[in-house]
Amino acid sequence: MKKMALTLTMIGFGFLANDALAQESPWLVRARAVNLEPINHSDPIGGVGPSDTLHVNDKTIPDVDISYFFTPNWATELVLTYPQKQEVSLNGQNIGSFKHLPPTLTLQYHFLPQGQFSPYLGGGLNYTRISDVDLLNGAATLDNHSWGLALQAGVDYRLNKNWSLNFDVKKLQIRSNVYAGGQQISEVRIDPWLLGAGVGYRF
Question: Is 0.85 surpassed by the pTM of this model?
Answer without folding.
Answer: no
